[in-house]
Each structure stands twice: as C-alpha cells, then as structure tokens.
Amino acid sequence: MSAKAEILRRIRSATEGGVTGADVPRDYDRAALVGRGNVDRFAETVDDYRAQVYRIFEAEIAGTVASLLGGGRAVVPVDLPSAWVDGIAVVPDEGLSVNQLDAVDAVITGCAVGIAATGTIVLDAGEAQGRRALTLVPDHHICIVKADQVVDTVPQAFAVLDASRPLTFISGPSATSDIELNRVEGVHGPRRLNVLIVS
C-alpha cells in the first residue's frame, strides 16, 4: 500500500460515520478600547512595517500626493475624490490591463478601515478603492486613511467589514524572505507604501 493510500485509509477510518462540527465561539470583544480608534497607535504600527506615514489635514491631501509622486504618473479608481488629486495628472482605471498597470509609477486609493493594533489597512473594493489588481501591480501605493476609519482591534474591524466583499489586507510594503532569510521587497505587491492619515 502506498503512503497516499494509507493516509486516505486512515482519514476514511477516522471519519466513518460522519464528522460532527465543533462549535467555535465567536463572541469576540468588539468594543472599542478608548472610544474612537487610536490613531496615534495606528500610525506607530504602520510605521513599524516600513511604510511611510504622514499625518495631514484634508486640505493637504493633493499637495502631499503630488510631492510623493514627484512628477510620476499614477492610476486611480474612477470614483476617487477629485480633490485628492487636484492638479495631478492621473490615469483613471477603466479596466486597464496588467501591463498598463505595471507601466504607471503609483496607485492612489482610499481604504475601508485601518487597524491600530496590527497596523493593517483593509480595502474592500468600495468607494475610492478600486479593484484588487490596482493595489497589487503598481510598485508604489499611496493610501489615504481618514482618522475616523481607524479602529483599535481586528474584531472591531471585522464588525464593520462585509465578509462577502473582496477584502485585501495590507500590512506594510510587500515583503518576503528568501531561503537565507534575506528580505526581498516587491515580490507580491508594491515596494513602497505611503499612508496619509487624514484628520
């Protein structure tokens, strides 16, 4: 008997008569820790992931984005607020191909929620976020997070997210390690992540 056949025999033997599911408790604590999300902690944890964090006011968004682009060309979701890119030449994503997305310098999006405990930004393809390929193909992502989108914990985030939407979790620029544990950036997404936290 092959190893595969033996494994299958054991699984069939163990599940003979059916498998009953275990009840998994889902009563996570979703209460806010301090009222509104802790924006200072969110900025610190995002910074820990080697993202560049900017604390700005709404009127400063376009100017900050322009300085980060440095004259480069960025793609944006079609429903991105025009005030965020006022005076900036951008390419609206109207179904651009992967090669076309790869040819731009950056992508500019909003987000659905930011999680202070983990420094994670979640996009759900909602307003100003576009489709998933937008945030995976260009090498530079400029993400705008409103202070009131920040929550403290992961359970709080899931309480406001819709699990039926395509959720993309971003914790810093794309990075992995090779077999010798050397950090390699940009393999699975943007090498540069700028996070603009807007008060």
Which features does this protein show?
199 residues; four-stranded mixed beta sheet; 6 helices; 12 strands
Structure description:
The chain is built from 6 helices and 12 strands. The chain has helices at 3-14, 39-48, 61-69, 98-103, 132-136, 154-160, and strands at 52-56, 74-76, 90-92, 106-109, 113-115, 120-123, 140-146, 150-151, 168-170, 175-177, 183-185, 192-198. The strands form 3 sheets. The protein has a 6-stranded parallel β-sheet, with helices on both faces. A hairpin with a 4-residue loop joins β5 (113-115) and β6. The longest helix has 12 residues, at 3-14. The mean pLDDT is 92.
- Tell me about the largest β-sheet: 6 strands, parallel
The percentage helix is 10-25%
What is the molecular shape? Answer: globular
Overall pLDDT confidence: 92
**Radius of gyration from the alpha-carbon trace, in angstroms:** 21 Å
Structural class: alpha/beta
Distance between the termini: 66 Å
**Total count of helical runs of at least 4 residues:** 6
Number of strands: 12
Strand content: 15-25%
What's the helix-strand series? HHEHEEHEEEHEEHEEEE
Q: Low-confidence spans: pLDDT under 50, at least 5 residues?
A: none
Adjacency order of strands in the biggest sheet = 1-12-7-4-2-3
Oligomeric status: single chain
Could you outline the blueprint of secondary structure elements for this entry?
Blueprint: H1 3-14, H2 39-48, E1 52-56, H3 61-69, E2 74-76, E3 90-92, H4 98-103, E4 106-109, E5 113-115, E6 120-123, H5 132-136, E7 140-146, E8 150-151, H6 154-160, E9 168-170, E10 175-177, E11 183-185, E12 192-198
